[in-house]
Amino acid sequence: MTEPEIRDLAPDDIDALIALYEHLNPGDPPPGAEAVQAVFAQPGLRHFGLFAQGRLTATCNLAVIPNLTRGGQPYGVIENVVTHAARRGQGHGQDVIAHALTQAWAAGCYKVVLTTSRRDPAVWAFYERCGFDGGHKRAFVIRRP
Q: What's the pLDDT band for 134 if we cut at 50, 70, 90?
């Protein structure tokens, strides 16, 4: 059995990525080709994928945000964390998040923020095992009406 590989995703990986996102938000409509191109062209936004046995198994993205506080150090935001439902509990999600954190620290980020809409304490415990502190800050969200 080969070791999982983690790498930046490319436009060629989009079909596998969209299929994996079905395990995050079932029923979401897939983005159009123009939206995909626009997202992948964003500077400071990276999509990471963990491939196990040649298949995209886990992913997250990292946005590095320029900043004028903290001495001008940027900060990171991790979003869209998902592992294929059949592969959960094998460490793939933790591995892809650890990779994203390594990249954030290499980019000079002074902190990384991750939010989740999941209310499941097991999900919160997962993020805490990844090193996040759920009691450090409070997030407020507003959605477009």
A: confident
- When pLDDT is averaged across residues 113-138 and rounded to a whole number, the result is 90
Query: What whole-number distance in Å separates Cα of residue 6 and Cα of residue 58?
Result: 9
Instruction: Specify the CATH number for the domain of residue 114.
Output: 3.40.630.30
Q: In total, how many domains does the chain have? A: 1
pTM of the model: 0.93
45-132-14-50 Cα dihedral, nearest 10 degrees: 120
DSSP class of 145: -
pLDDT reported for residue 140: 86
| Burial profile 73-109: b = 16 or more Cβ within 10 angstroms, e = fewer | ebbbbbeebbbbeebeeeebbbbbbebbbebbeeeeb
pLDDT tens digits for 68-118? 999 999 999 999 999 999 999 999 999 999 999 999 999 999 999 999 888
Long-range contacts of 128-136 (CB under 8 A, 24+ apart): 129/94, 130/93, 130/94, 130/97, 130/98, 130/101, 131/101
Q: In this structure, is residue 138 part of a structural domain? A: no
